[in-house]
Amino acid sequence: MIILAIETSCDETAISVLKADKNKFEILSNIVASQVKIHAKWGGVVPNLAKREHQRNLPIVLKKALKKAGFVNLKSQISNLKDIDLIAVTTGPGLEPCLWTGINFAQELYKNLKSQNSNLKIIGINHMEGHILSVLLKEKSNLKSQISKIEFPAMALLVSGGHTELVLIKDWLKYKVIGATRDDAAGEAFDKVAKMLGLPYPGGPEIAKLAARTDLAETARSVLKLPRPMINSKDYDFSFSGLKTAVLYLLKDLKQKGLTTDDWLLKTNICREFQQAVIDVLIKKTLRAAKEFKVKTIILGGGVAANNELRTQLGEKIKKELPITNYLLPITKYTTDNAAMIAAAAYFHAITCPPSLRSGAGRREKDKTKNLKADGNLSL
Ligand code: KG4
Ligand code: ZN
């Protein structure tokens, strides 16, 4: 099955072509046009600017994705599009004007290609499901063996710029959100704190980079202490806006003492402590949820899953406290938004009789082929 997937939920215009069968996912192309530079000067994503950029980028990204995937004839023209079996597009959650741009583009493409392949289908995909299934995108690995590592029940910790969620997965395609952020998402907190520290957008990688500065580590033994919001609350919700405010007060306090973040040692200290505060809360809640629901697999996904400290520390904690639990995480390039993960999720909705899967797969395919609609708050 050849799947062409389109992702425009936020500030990346992404198209991927995935060749999928029960043994293998072959990523024929995975093109991501990032708008980071455009939004950086505003310190965050501006929805209307993002929509305009998606409209501009989509035809270019499509051409690149098709070319890379080998849909070209001897005259270097795009051809053989009849081989595409399924078009997948993100319908939510995300910025609605951006989602609509992707959906309209996908539907137009569907209309054009339907004449070449009457079996062509179109399907809407939840962006968060893409982040979960991004763990199956490995450069060279046997899909069956990857799939066999996802034993149910599973728990996914999804951490991105827009979301922080704990999702209980009872079976293939059966999700239940058991906890979510009450205010800022983890990635959003990284971005906002970075802005306070005068670091560029997106702030997550910048904070992570500074926090990892070993040359400053020896002298930078920190006395700074930031709160770990809701770490001991009985539910599985998160809150990061208080942590962000704590950084703001800390900076004000330091300023009064004549200290500024022009001091790189101080900046490094704040980054390290802030990052650790976020990680501590994420790990504590994930482990507690994993124990309560007796899960066999823990999955980490979303843009913040690119954070090396989070990846490592969560892995170490699982090994220590839940040694027989599988721990799956995407390779770094598939942590942030991309369309290959949307294609992967689409595959599991499209297959009707998956031998290696249980009952749930394919279940939702029928209602997903028509009436695609953007839903900014789409839930799993
Ligand atoms: O999943 P994603 O690409 O987009 C959304 O769906 O929101 O996530 C983007 C978020 C941004 O907030 C960015 O700062 C954060 O992921 N991020 C990181 C790292 N790399 C990206 N946060 C912490 N550490 C990183 N290394
Ligand atoms: Zn995302």
Query: What summary fits the major beta sheet?
Result: 5 strands, mixed
User: Could you name the CATH topology of the largest domain?
Assistant: Nucleotidyltransferase, domain 5
Strand order of the largest sheet: 3-2-1-4-5
Unique ligands = 5'-O-[(R)-(carboxyoxy)(hydroxy)phosphoryl]adenosine, zinc ion
- Which second-level CATH architecture of the largest domain applies? 2-Layer Sandwich
Averaged pLDDT:
91
Annotation field: number of helices:
11
Q: Which blocks of ≥5 consecutive residues have pLDDT under 50?
A: 353-368
What would you give as the CATH superfamily of the largest domain?
ATPase, nucleotide binding domain
Helical residue percent band? 25-40%
Number of extended strands: 10
Q: SSE string, helix = H, strand = E? A: EEEHHEHEHHEEEHHHHEHEH
User: What is the structural class?
Assistant: alpha/beta
Computed CA radius of gyration, to the nearest angstrom:
21 Å
* First-residue to last-residue Cα separation: 25 Å
Question: How do the helices and strands line up, and which of them pair or pack?
Answer:
Blueprint (H helix, E strand, L loop, with lengths): L1 E6 L4 E9 L4 E10 L1 H5 L6 H22 L17 E7 L3 H19 L6 E6 H7 L9 H7 L4 E6 L4 E8 L2 E7 L5 H11 L6 H9 L29 H16 L7 H29 L4 E5 L6 H14 L4 E3 L11 H11 L30
Parallel strand pairs: 1-4, 4-5, 6-9, 9-10
Antiparallel strand pairs: 1-2, 2-3, 6-7, 7-8
Helix pairs in contact: 2-3, 4-11, 6-7, 6-8, 6-9, 7-9, 9-10
The structure holds 5'-O-[(R)-(carboxyoxy)(hydroxy)phosphoryl]adenosine and zinc ion (ZN).
